[in-house]
Give the backbone structure.
Amino acid sequence: MELRTGSNLPEYSVSQLAEQIKGTLEETFSRARVRGEISSFFRSGAGHLYWTLKDDRSGLKCACFRSAAQRLAVRPEDGLEVVVTGRVSTYGQRSEYQLIVDAVEVAGEGALLKMINDRRERLAAEGLFDEQRKRPIPYLPSVIGVVTSEQGAVIHDILHRLRERFPREVVLWPALVQGEGAAGQIAAGIAFFNDLEPGGPVSRPDVLIVGRGGGSVEDLMAFNEEVVARAIAASRIPVISAVGHETDTTIADFAADLRAPTPTAAAEMAVPVRAELRASLMTTAARLAAGLQRAAETRLARLETVRQQLSRPSTRIERLTQRVDLAWNRVVSDGAQRVARFRATLAHASGRLRTPVDQVRAMHRRTDAALTAADRGIGARYDQAELRLRLSADQPRLRDLTEQRLEQARRRWTAQARLLEASSHKRILERGFAIVQTGEDTLVRRAQDLAAGQAVTLLFQDSPPGQPIPARILEPVPDRRP
């Protein structure tokens, strides 16, 4: 008899066995909470999330489909220690079991704080919190947008504080502020306000307040999400963050243009106190009125001065007349002094002038002396040149040089002699003039110096030397001086 091993066991196909195992696992582990560290995180193009949850000895495949991923309170990322909740199932094509996740929470506050700090440092390295990105908060906004829960005390505190300080139009975007989907709703509210067009059916805010009341680190987690930080940083409308109490700090506070310690403080930062503003305006108006009053008084005083001057024109004319008289006296006095100085200068110059004949005679004497000296000088230089030529080995060159210099000297003296000859009194007589003299060869310079019957001598160009022609004045010359 042949024994067939396992003949009493049921036979399964691969798919049947996979389905059997899947059913057993899902029945045994309908829901499970598993703690571990996320690694190999991956997001598919369809929005599904996949990662491995591991501890120091084992690893568990996890899958979170898009519908559940959109509701997660914590965004999975590598290195984050979490507690995930889901159902155990298998993936038959690879015969692998996995956890189908529908909830994720951070495992302990320390791990959560580490995740927040790592995220903050990463966003800061991108420049998301740089001061140059910050926008100024408008001094008196017309419309204020608020992103918070419509059920909590935050919106009531903000509205109450605005009514006390300076009532403004408020537009609320109601959003979850904690739990699944809270971060997405907050980011959507910020984007909604930025997409509004000015003048549309919904007023576009001039400033946004994004916040909530106090709570634990887990309660404030929505404001530590990256999606909220990026929405605040991308907002074209200035954002005031108002999350929790003064000791609470979230990533949203770093991304916002201004951080308020509380939602009530955010309302105070958004608008001034109306009474204080009114008092400031009154003070400014009073200072302006006082300044205008002083300016008006100054101008009135100047006008009065001008009016008084115009009312007594004779006084002004008298002063102007005196000024003209003084100026004229100075002109006359200065003119007389200048004329006197000019006359003295002329008298001094006339005394130094010589007659033309005296100048010509003196020039002839200087010319004769110069020619005599030149002849002696030329002779001496010629003798010296002859001596040098005899002593020099290069006599032809020295002789030529000497002759050139002598020729240049003769030309200069000849030119000067011709110039002197041209200015001689003989040339003047040749042009038809005559020299009139009285006794002892005294030259007559003016007709007024002659009297009727006075004997004179005339010297013409062709007069023999030393024999002037005698003549007598028949009639006196009338004085024609002005």
User: Anything to note?
Assistant: Residues 313-350 form one domain.
